[in-house]
Amino acid sequence: MKGMTKRIIAVCMTFVILSVTPLNDIAPKEISKPATAMAAEDDKGGKYVSEVRIGQGETEEKAKKELEEGGYTILKDDAGNYADLNEGAGSKSELKTGANDKKVYLGYKTTSDPKKAITDLATINMGTPDNAPYSETDYNVLMKKTMDSHIKPFVNNFIAALEEYRENYNKPKDTLNHIRADYMRRILNKFTDDDTGKPMGDLLLNKTKYEMGDAAYNALSDSEKKDHADILTILMQANGQATLAIETLITKATDTSDDTWIDRFTSTSLSELEDRMREEQDFSNQNDLNAALDKKYNDTATELLKKWDAFREDITDYEDKADEIEDSTDDLEDMVDEIESMDLQNTTDTDEEKISEAANEVTKHAIDGRAVGVAAYLEGINYNGSSLLDYFSREYDEVKTNSGIRTLYPIVDALSPGQIAGLEFMSFMDLVSIAMADKDTYADVEKSIETADPVSVYDGVDREIYEEGGVAMTTDALRKQASQNVEPENYNGTLPIMLWSIVIGFAAASIGVKALANVIFKFEVVKWVKEAYEEGVKVSFSELSAETIHRYNLWKSGFGNTYGQYLSAGLATLAVIMTILSLIVTLIDISSYYSTKYLPIPNIMVDVNDITTKDENGDDILIKNQTAYYRAVRCNRKAAKGGIEKNNYDAMGDKADLNGDIGRQWLALYAVKNENGRPILSDSFRYVKGSDSVPEGYRIGIHEFGTFNKKGDSAPAFNLNNSKYLFAGDPPSIKVYYKIEDKTVTQLTSSKAGSIFSVGSLALGGGFGIIIGALFMGLIMRRRRPTEERAL
Fold first, then answer.
1. What's this model's pTM, rounded to 2 decimal places?
2. Of 791, 162, 22, 788, which is closest to residue 459 (Cα–Cα)?
């Protein structure tokens, strides 16, 4: 066969053992990263608003000073004067303590990059002890409840897997157990823990802080503490993909026996398990014996049953799949040859469409190739008078019965405690692949991971959401979160690239599994291993244009790919937390009518809304239940030694109050940068005083949270001088309008081509397709280019 055939087949066959790697079921989902209106370089004359800041003061000079020094453009009225958002809001009463009047100016910076643009500005008022527009659940109680009900029970169970990982690593270096554990350790070391500065693989070889107990841990020196992971914090707060990868890797390093679970399973029958039970106690009848067996094995067998259908579908008709792979390889060769002739750093829309199409074809080949290898392996193993392939090919309806599920009990008995503890992270494909792996499987691990850069386990996670007093949810968000507790927004950090790079290298290192030599002769896989490997299946994703990857993933998220959306920050517990996440506040009675003791302004406001935008054909599309993290806009308020200024700063810090700290309540301003939102145009701000008429050409502006029009845009501007929040009797209405782009950030920055790392790949293979897409990119990047530093 031609060289390309060898490369295609070799890539396909890597999936026989790809489950040894951490991410076979993880699609690199974009983690929602809270948007920010904080410091940004000003792009003078830029089209979009990139940053907003408030200046306040008793005089114009005080209000504008820091804004001008910081390079902000200050909003002006139609006459060219600085626009006071707080005009006429002060009280003339002599009973009022502190300032009676303050000017409030809005400053902004601009950018030409849609990805740096603010897409919405919204306000929320402080509320009262009995009626606040955001939640007030005690965050400490919530966090403790989540930790006690979710994290600690999981860790208590998962300790068995950690212990087997450590035991295997400490075995003699020439044993398969050590080699496998060391392989996983090296992958784990590509994840780093920010709090200790240590790589996770080495860190987890030591007991965690939780395992040691507070007394023993607190007795350590500061330097000694850095050798022990705070596993509870990591599981609660770390990037969901990273935690799932860590849990999967640890599980795949378990099983301390010299044989494999398949060896133990095939040497045990259900009748032998029954005999063992009879040796332990007497049973008067078969029903009592069955009840005892069920008590010991049924829970784990039920977990295995959940994985049955997916595995059965993978290995059914594997011979037909093998024939299809060979028959279609020539056509695929032509597609890949065309792609290899492209300038991949300067791809056109047409090029990207071809890459996407070819990636989907390779995805199908690779999924089928994986099934061919595993099925052929199982067919070569005898069990109860037939093959293991026959055993795993039984219909689900047959296995789910009481008698059928008991046929899984020998598998449960064969699994180690660590494998059972981490079973939720393992598929049958994983389990078989681990059992098939030999020392050669792991021989090239050094080469396979050398190009992958380390990445923080907290990559893409804003840990501020876990801090006390930092986060609140709008009442609108609380209403909507009941049906949508996760946020499938975009995150383009370094973690996905690192993971893909590792997978590519591991797949290449896994090709030479001796166990396949006798059962897949027709593909001559073993003969082609070295050639395929040296032709460049092992390749770093750093060689692929970062901007091209970025555009692919923007496209993916913009048009409804929701696979993996539940892998949000922190072991899927963030969704639980966000259900009732709130600001910790101490509700303080107003001591007098004219003396306000302000409550803290939340750093982050979580809001959920449907967004209406247009697709590439100009048709309206609705993106439902988009969760967005708005950040409080900052101002020039400073700490003071005493008096009202000290009280105000202690409560609100430098978070802006559009009422200038002189009202009944604060009116906080929040900004968001949402890739599914539409950028605010920098030359469109319009200040309107004393009129409820919407200026011609405008329809939206700075609004209250939860107020949106039928198009999904924010409603016409909110009156920032609302008498409900002021001491002034009849202040003039003040509204700030703006215009937005017709297209979302996603549409402005994405390509029409589908993501080669999603869409079709996921449609064909679930989470597995994403990894094959990554391998395909390794395949087409066979021609090495000069190394360049790139970052998303």
1. 0.57
2. 791
What is the largest distance, in Å, between two alpha-carbon atoms of the chain? 98
Asked if the model's pLDDT at residue 120 lies above 80, the reply is yes
The tokens describing 360, both together, are 């989907």
Report H helices in 253-317: 261-266, 270-280, 286-306, 308-315
Distance CA 424, CA 629 (A): 31
Residue 257 has pLDDT above 90, yes or no: yes
The conformation of residue 124, written as its DSSP 8-state character, comes to E
Report residue 454 as tokens: 């380390």
Place of tokens 């091209």: 548
Helix-, strand-, coil-residue percentages of the chain, each rounded to 5: 45, 10, 40
Output the pLDDT for position 723.
Answer: 63
User: Looking at residues 286-298, what average pLDDT do you find?
Assistant: 95
CA atoms within 13 A on the CB side of 424: 9
DSSP 8-state assignment for residue 199: B
Residue 642 CB contacts under 8 Å (≥ 6 apart), including other chains: none
Place of tokens 């209403």: 479
Task: Encode pLDDT of 430-487 as tens digits.
Answer: 888 788 877 776 765 555 556 567 888 887 766 765 665 555 555 444 333 322 322 3
Nearest residue to 523 (alpha-carbon basis) of 9, 17, 4: 9
DSSP string, 510-564: TS--GGGTTT-GGGTHHHHHHHHIIIIIS--GGGS-HHHHHHHHHHHHHTT--TT
CA 139 to chain centre: 23
- What single DSSP character describes residue 328? H
Q: Measure the CA–CA gap between 680 and 714, rounded to whole angstroms.
A: 12
CB 453 within 8 A of CB 111: no
Question: Can you spell out the DSSP letters for 146-186?
Answer: HIIIIIHHHHHHHHHHHHHHHHHHTS-TTSHHHHHHHHHHH
Whole-number Å distance between alpha carbons of 165 and 184: 9
Nearest CA among 598, 653, 643 for reference residue 98: 643
Residue 409: the pLDDT is: 97
Closest CA to 627 of 468, 479, 496: 479
State the helix-helix crossing angle for 546-558 and 495-509, rounded to 10 degrees: 110
DSSP string over 366-417: HHHHHHHHHHHHHHTSEETTEEHHHHHTS-HHHHSSHHHHHTTHHHHHHS-H
Cα angle 792, 121, 686; round to 5: 120
Over residues 741-752, the pLDDT tens digits come to: 988 888 888 643
Structure tokens at 480: 């909507």
Q: What's the confidence (pLDDT) of residue 784?
A: 26
Q: Which CATH class is domain 48-136+571-747?
A: mainly beta
- Burial (CB < 10 A; 0-12, 13-18, 19+), residue 315, is buried
* Residue 618: pLDDT over 80: no
pLDDT tens, position by position, 535-592: 333 322 233 333 333 333 333 333 223 223 323 333 233 323 322 222 212 222 222 3
| In 58-175, alpha helices (H) | 60-69, 139-146, 152-169
Instruction: Give the residue-averaged pLDDT of 140-167.
Output: 79
Residue 314 has pLDDT above 80, yes or no: yes
Distance CA 102, CA 661 (A): 8
Judging by DSSP bridges, how do beta strands 620-632 and 604-614 pair with one another?
Answer: antiparallel
Helix (H), strand (E) at residue 52 = strand 48-57
pLDDT at 382 over 50: yes
Task: Evaluate if residue 2 carries a pLDDT over 60.
Answer: no
- At 247, which helix (H) or strand (E)? helix 240-252
Cα 762 from chain centre: 17
Residues shown for the chain: 792
